[in-house]
Structures are given as C-alpha cells and as structure tokens.
Design a protein that fits this description.
The structure holds 2 protein chains of 2 kinds. Chain A is built from 6 helices and 10 strands, in the order βααββαββαββαβββα. By secondary structure, chain A is an alpha+beta fold. The chains are: A alpha+beta, B alpha/beta. Chains A and B meet through helix 1, helix 2 and helix 6 of A and helix 1, helix 4 and helix 5 of B.
C-alpha cells in the first residue's frame, strides 16, 4: 500500500506537481494543449503554505485513509476503498455533486470540479507506476513509498523517485 | 474551441520528449548518442545528459506565465484558471507573457547588434591602423554600403571611405531620433506600413533600452503596445545590427561566393593540430585563418610531430570561415562537446554566444585547451587570451602557437568517420551573379521561375539546435519536404549545418530530393536546392534578397505579397526570437518548433498568430512537428500564389519575329 508523501524540508512551493496533476487528468495530456481545452482540467494536489508560508510549503492530496469518512458520507455510495491497493476510489458516474465528501474530509483533499460538476480527488494516476506529481517534483520532495515506511518521526525508507533515479540511469 | 485554434496557430503541441528519446541515435549523418554512450561510462557529461536531468521542466516557465521582474514576486498565473489569475501588481497572463517575450527579443537584438558594433570597430581599425592586420577586402561592397549610409566615396581613398563608413555605422547604434538608414533597403510599401505603425527604429541601442524600460515593473501593460516595441526592437536588429554586421564583414573579409567545403566531426584530422574555433564573430576567426598558415607556426607543428594545422569551426563562426575560405565545419552548436570528446582537439577557441559553460569541466577529461578571447565572455577554468581589434594578429598567433605546443599531450583519439561535402556561400550578391552573370545579374530569373511555377516559393529555414528534440531531425525532415514540393530553401546558422550534414547542400541533392520543377532550375543554374547563406547575423541577407525579389517585379509590391515563409524548427536562443519577430514584422509567415513560451496566454498567442497578419502582413505559428510545419508553410505559399494569380502554372511562350509583328499590329498606335 503506497502513499504519496511530501518531505517538507525539500518542498520549494514551485507547484510543478499541480501542473503535472492537471495535465495527467486532461484530455490531451500535454501541457500546452491542456491549458486550451474547453473544460479546463483540475489538479487534485494543492501546494499549501504552512506557518504563514514564507518558507514552508507542503503539497497535499488525498491521504487514502484506512477508514475514509468521505466514503461514509457519500450519499450515493460512490466512494469505496480498494482493499488490495488501499486506494480510496471515486466512481465518477455515481457522483451527484452534493459535496458531502468535501465537507467531511479532514485534509481538505477533495475538490469541486466546476467544469465536470462533480467531486474529484487523487487517484494515484491509474496506469502509471509513479504518480505524475511525484515524477514532476524537481527536488524530490514528493515520494511514492510503502505506507509502512511512514512513522510519526518521518520516513524510515526514503526513496526519491525523480532526480536520483534519473541520475542513476545516466551515469 | 481547441480544434479551431489548433488549426489557426499550428497544433502548438509540445514534442513528446519521453517518447522520442530512444530515437536520438537515428539521425542523419551522425550519431552523437552512440558517441556519448561510450563516454557516459567514463563519467563524461554532454548537453543531452543535462537536458534529461532538467526534465520535467517547469510548466509555468514553458508557458511563459512566470514573472520575476520585481521583488513583490516571483509571480505565476495558474494556466488552469483555479489559482491566481493576476500577479501581485495585477499583471494578467497577457501582460506577463508579453513582457517576457519582449525581453527575449531585446536580448536577441542586443546580441546581434553588439556583434555588429565590434565589426564596425574592426573596420575602423582596418582604415586607420592597418598594422592591426585587418584590411578592406571588398572595395565594391564598401562603395555600395557607403552609398546606403550616405558617405561620399567619389575620388576618395578606400581608407578614408572605410573610416567614414565605420563611423556612420557606429553612429547608428547611438542614434536617438529619426530612422536608421538601412530600412531604406526595404520595399517602399513596407517602409510606409512601418511608418504608419510608428515602428521604424530610431536607433539600435535606444530600442533595446526602451524595451527593457517598458517591461520593468509598472510601465507598459498593453500586450499589443509591448509588441509594437517588440517589432521595433526586432527591426533594429534585422535591418540594423545584424545587417551592419553582415555588410561590414563582407567589406572586411570578402563577400561570400559559392565555395566547396566539408562538414561533420570527420573533418577533424588525425595527424594535424586541430584548432576548433567556436562562437560568432569572424573578427577573431579571420585572424586565426591567417595565423594557421603562418610558416613559422607550421614549422613548429612539424617539429612537434604534426603534419600541419587544421582549423575547423563550430556553430556560426564555422559558417563565417566556411563561406569565406572553404574551411571545414566540425558541427553545429550541440556538437561543441562532441568535438572535444574525440580527443583530437588541441585548442577550442571561443568568443561570444552559444558557448556552453560546461566546456572547461569537459576539457579536463582530455588534453584540449579551452581558450576564451572576449572580455565579454569569460569562463572560469579556461585560458584567457584577450582579443581586441588592435592586437588581432598577435593574439591569433599566440593562440595557434599554444595549440601547436599542446599537440604532444594528445591521448587516445576517436574521430567519427562521418563527413559530407557541401557547397556554401550563397550571399545575396552571389545569387544575383548566378542568375545572370556580371552584366545581367538580377532576381528576374528567380521571379520568372516562381511565376511559371517551376519554383513554388522560397523558404528560409534557420535557427539553432535543441536537445529537447532529436538532433537535426526537424531541420532535415522539414527541408526535404519543402524541396520535394519545389520550394527553394535558403538557410543560415546551425540549421544550415544540420542540412549540410544530411547531404542536402550538394548540387546532386536536387536530383535526389527536389521536385521536378525545382530540380530543373537547379540543374540549369548548377546550384543545390538548399542554399547556405551564412551565419545567424546573415539572416539579414535573406531580408535583402526578399526586398530584391519585390523590386525585380511580378510578385507584388511588398515582402508580404511574396510566396515565401520562414521557420526555426529547433530554436533555443533568444536571438532566434528576435529573428522570428523581424521576419514577421517584415511581412514573412514564420513557424517555430519546440514551442514558444507564450502559450500561457490565449490572447497573446492570438495577437502573434492572427492579429499580426492584419498589421504587418507576417505572422507567427507554433508547430513542433516537421511534417505539419512544412504543410503550414506550403499552404501559406500557395495562398500567396493564389493572391498573385500565379497559382495555375503557365509555361513561358517564346515569341518569334512573326508573333512579335502580330503583337505590334494589334497594339493601338501610341
């Protein structure tokens, strides 16, 4: 069960993850054409300022809770947890845009998609090994790691997926 | 909405970098990646490695919606409309994109123009201090330029005229009022349109300064108004700085005429001292040419075990020495590191522009001595031989001597075998001569062939190389498709080197790649279907050629009436943006590949790609795919042919005496 974790000491607040997320969830999947799509794609990750925000930022998206309150709150039963991957999934066909999930989410990680008129959230980029936001992070602040690696004291296993892996490939 | 605007501007698609990386090795003429693969193991790094490490690139930067012009920011506009739509000062996406684009034009114009200033200074040295080693080589061109600049030349010595021309040229840079004199070389209708829009440059330096002023915090907040100045700065480059550079270089070093040469890394010599000269200004390289033939230095080379001294070029300096001396070209801008990696380069001598700061670190892995020569461009870790127009020959001699002394330090050498013949040197003057000899030289034969339809039109394919796309491929694919469709191609800069490597610049390529009509013309004149016109400042030659086409008649009254188009398929330098804008402002439809950092504002993109046409006759398009790029250019050329009424091919009827008499009888008596 993997999670996207943000290492705050490395986050520069550049918002590359937001762009990559929106592009990944667009029709054309290419930045310059995605910005001109009729229904603008929406990012499911948000860079937030912490402590007044001068120098501390954090990229936040759905935490894929073990006991998701959004699933309990959903009036149409459109949110469920995949027991195998641990991902909390939304069924777009069932969303009636009541926004109950948004109200109950303790992380504020579910967004209204005005263009599609439904709720959207991080889906760990189905079809990709590494989510787009993690791959886009220029400093390796975002990592995609096993849930067990996360402790109250930080990550036990730190495996950045962007810079270091690419350097391995080259040198 | 997307579908329509895509057609209007070109698809605007970014090239899928990931998808194409694997194909880098499959390029015409050479395989840099194979070379680098071998050296990657040794820890040697090239531009392609660093480009990969820079992915994914910042999307805000790619779209041009990031502003760092004041310290209330940095600010970014959310291109998806969720977050901030204005910067701290209130600047919208249009304003930010326009300011950034305007500054790119200003930087590009500054680079070309500062180059021109140095050439004017060298001409002054030639006139007043012949001991500097410079001399006037083309007195005919001197008189021509003197006439344009309003310098008297009758009954005066060459030195006096040259000094006055140099002085007049230098004065254009600091000119404050009126119009720069070289715009008078443009067709009358074009000049009139510039005056209507009030974009005739008043000077060169002034326009760059004004653009920097307008785009600083809190000044010009109308993207259309910023682009009016954008056009004016760009024109001060194309019809100012660049043109001064080209014209005065011709006076000093000779006007190019067709010359044979060789191109690609295979021109490096196994048993000679290899001196690679890289950068832009021929003021230095011309002196190196002389020094490399110095008897004493040749003797020294023999003493050190070398058979001779092999001077080769990289980037635009290469184009300058090829056009004037037929010296070989080792490669274009992205091959600068590859040349060092062969292990065969004793000295890499650089001046200004397009020189990678990675070179000193790379040279440490080999015996190559990196030598900087310009006070404007120093690199930590390089040996500096300060070059000035006053001590030109002395410095050049020291540099070559250093290179020769370095020959015994050479280690293992691995020079790739590839090299290719080419014919270059198609200056405006050379084309005129080719089309009719000394007495009848003119552009009429070209226009006639365009009117008859043998030649569909003319395309300028220019610009840099960019590691974001497979090396050289877009240049070569685009040019092949254009000539197959009977479009005569004129090239400069690294784009020209790319196509030369692919074998497109030999006369035989007409039979192999060109369409029937173009091949027929090439066969008759004995020229390749792809003409090499010089370095990137020599794009001004294309402006002059276009003006001459208009003056020769039959193809409309303005450059924007001509069936012509321009492209920079793999651009990367700010200079390319300045060139693009001066072509557009001169009335030419211009397509750029690899994206343009303006996509973050639909309004601004629309201004460049649609509104510009009604104002200036030329417009921009963005299209990374070479095949679709060719389609846009050919469509545009066809559109212009139709407007001229020459879209139906007509064979020329040769009148005999009988027919003439009939014609005379039909005409009413005057």
């Amino acid at each position: 069960m993997k999670r996207v974790i943000c290492r705050m000491d490395r986050c520069l607040g550049c918002r590359a993850c937001e762009l990559a997320c929106a592009v990944e969830h667009s029709e054309s999947r290419t930045l310059v054409t995605a910005v001109r799509e009729a229904v603008k794609p929406r990012a499911r990750i948000r860079v937030e300022a912490v402590d007044g925000g001068l120098h501390r930022t954090l990229a936040l998206q759905c935490r894929q809770c073990e006991e998701p309150v959004c699933a309990q709150a959903c009036i149409s039963g459109g949110i469920r947890r995949d027991e195998r991957t641990g991902d909390v999934l939304m069924d777009p066909g069932r969303c009636v845009a009541c926004w109950s999930c948004i109200m109950v989410c303790p992380f504020g990680a579910i967004m209204r998609h005005e263009g599609l008129h439904r709720a959207v959230k991080c889906d760990h980029c189905p079809g990709r090994d590494i989510p787009a936001c993690v791959e886009a992070c220029p400093t390796g602040a975002l990592v995609f790691v096993e849930f067990t690696a996360v402790t109250p004291h930080g990550l036990t296993e730190q495996r950045p997926h962007s810079q270091a892996e690419r350097s391995d490939r080259i040198v | 909405m997307t579908g329509q605007s895509v057609d209007e501007y070109g698809s605007g698609n970014q090239v899928d970098i990931e998808g194409r990386q694997g194909t880098q090795g499959d390029m015409p003429g050479e395989k840099p990646v194979n070379i680098t693969a071998q050296f990657r193991q040794a820890g040697v790094e090239t531009v392609w490695d660093r480009s990969e490490l820079q992915t994914p690139r910042c999307g805000f930067g790619e779209l041009g919606v990031c502003c760092r012009n004041c310290n209330m920011g940095p600010c970014r506009i959310d291109p998806f409309g969720e977050g901030a739509q204005r910067g701290v000062c209130g600047a919208t996406a249009e304003i930010i994109v326009a300011r950034n684009f305007g500054r790119m034009i200003a930087a590009g114009a500054a680079a070309h123009s500062d180059h021109g200033r140095d050439v004017a200074h060298a001409l002054m040295q030639a006139a007043r201090h012949p001991e500097s080693g410079y001399a006037v080589k083309d007195a005919g061109k001197l008189r021509k330029v003197a006439k344009t600049l309003g310098v008297a030349f009758e009954n005066r010595t060459t030195a006096d005229v040259a000094a006055d021309v140099a002085q007049a040229a230098l004065a254009i840079f600091g000119q404050q009022e009126g119009e720069i004199p070289l715009v008078r070389l443009a067709p009358e209708t074009r000049q009139a349109q510039w005056r209507r829009l009030n974009i005739v440059p008043r000077g060169i330096d002034r326009e760059v300064v004004e653009m920097m002023h307008r785009t600083t915090m809190g000044v010009d907040h109308d993207h259309r108004n910023i682009m009016l100045q954008g056009s004016r700065v760009a024109l001060s480059d194309g019809w100012g700085g660049s043109m001064i550079a080209t014209e005065l270089q011709d006076i000093l070093f000779g006007t190019p005429s067709p010359v044979r040469g060789r191109v690609n890394l295979g021109v490096l010599s196994r048993d000679e001292v290899n001196v690679v000269v890289h950068g832009h200004e021929p003021a230095l390289s011309e002196m190196l040419v002389v020094a490399a033939r110095d008897g004493e230095l040749l003797a020294l080379a023999k003493e050190k075990g070398a058979k001779g001294i092999n001077l080769v070029g990289i980037c635009c300096t290469a184009n300058e020495i090829l056009l004037r001396h037929g010296l070989p070209i080792a490669g274009n801008v992205l091959q600068q590191e590859l040349a060092v990696i062969t292990g065969a380069v004793e000295a890499m001598v650089v001046d200004v522009q397009c020189i990678m700061p990675s070179l000193p670190e790379l040279c440490k892995c080999f015996h190559t001595r990196l030598m900087t020569t310009s006070s404007k461009g120093r690199i930590e870790g390089a040996f500096h031989h300060e070059f000035s127009e006053e001590n030109a020959y002395q410095t050049a001699r020291e540099i070559v001597q250093d290179a020769v002394m370095n020959f015994p330090n050479r280690g293992a050498v691995d020079i790739p075998g590839e090299s290719m013949d080419l014919v270059a040197g198609f200056s405006h003057e050379a084309i005129t001569y080719m089309l009719g000899g000394t007495f009848r030289g003119s552009y009429h034969p070209l226009n006639d062939n365009i009117i008859s339809g043998r030649i569909r039109g003319v395309a300028g394919v220019v610009g840099c190389c960019n590691p974001k796309v497979p090396h050289d491929r877009s240049h070569v694919d685009l040019v092949k498709e254009l000539i197959a469709n009977d479009v005569l191609v004129v090239q400069t800069g690294c784009s020209a080197i790319a196509c030369a490597k692919a074998g497109l610049m030999v006369p035989e390529s007409a039979e192999r790649y060109a369409g029937k009509g173009l091949a027929e013309v090439c066969r008759t004149v004995g020229m390749p279907p792809v003409l090499h016109s010089g370095s990137c400042v020599d794009n001004s030659r294309i402006l002059i050629a276009l003006s001459e086409m208009v003056k020769a008649g039959g193809l409309g009254n303005d450059i924007s009436d001509l069936p012509v188009a321009g492209a920079a398929p793999e651009w990367m330098s700010e200079k390319a943006v300045a060139i693009g804008q001066y072509f557009v402002a001169s009335g030419v439809f211009t397509v750029f590949g690899v994206g343009l950092p303006v996509m973050g504002s639909e309004l601004f993109l629309r201004h460049l790609c649609v509104e510009h046409e009604s104002m200036l006759g030329g417009k921009w398009a963005v299209e990374p795919d070479a095949h679709r790029m060719a389609g846009l250019m050919i469509d545009h050329i066809n559109k212009k042919r139709k407007a001229l009424g020459i879209d139906q091919g007509r064979e020329r009827v040769l009148f005999d005496m009988e027919m003439r008499r009939e014609l005379a009888a039909k005409e009413p008596a005057a």
